[in-house]
Amino acid sequence: MKTLHFVLCAILLTLLAVACQPKNPLVPGPGIDSMKGYELYSWEKNGEWYFSILVGTNREKSLEEIRAANATLKGMDELQAALESVPAGQYVTWFAPAPLAFPPEDLIRQIQQICKKQGLELGIAKE
């Protein structure tokens, strides 16, 4: 009986450990500081704006990483919630290399205001 309890506890702990890991290691968890800041990406699809926020690294992200289902944020509400989970003082660099794109200026201003309110330093890498 003790062996059964031990096995069940071990399985439960393993499942909890797996469930607590982020789905994508490049997607920031709430309140996580990043030594290299964060990278914001944007694109339009079927009239909707999509975004992803990834942990900054020394390499370019692939389009597959940027648009991964577990990294994609649909619309301003999801983006705002994600930005509000980033700790104040973090640097966010916004990229939109082809085929990605920047949204219209009114959305850019909204995102700038969200970052400012959250205490994030937003850099927009427009060419």
Please tell me about this protein's structure:
By secondary structure, the chain is an alpha/beta fold. It has one domain. Helices cover 37% and strands 22% of the residues. The protein contains four helices and five strands; from the N terminus they run H-E-E-H-E-H-E-H-E.
Summarize the structure in short:
With 127 residues, the protein is α/β, with parallel strands linked by helices. The chain contains four helices and five strands, in the order αββαβαβαβ. It has helices at residues 2-20, 63-66, 75-84, 105-118, and strands at residues 38-45, 48-55, 72-74, 91-95, 121-124.
Topology at a glance:
Layout: H1 2-20, E1 38-45, E2 48-55, H2 63-66, E3 72-74, H3 75-84, E4 91-95, H4 105-118, E5 121-124
Parallel strand pairs: 1-4, 4-5
Antiparallel strand pairs: 1-2, 2-3
Helix pairs in contact: 3-4
Gyration radius, rounded: 18 Å
Overall mean confidence score, pLDDT: 83
- Percent helix among the residues? 25-40%
Low-confidence stretches: 13-26
Entry keywords:
127 residues; alpha/beta; 5 strands; 37% helix; 22% strand; globular
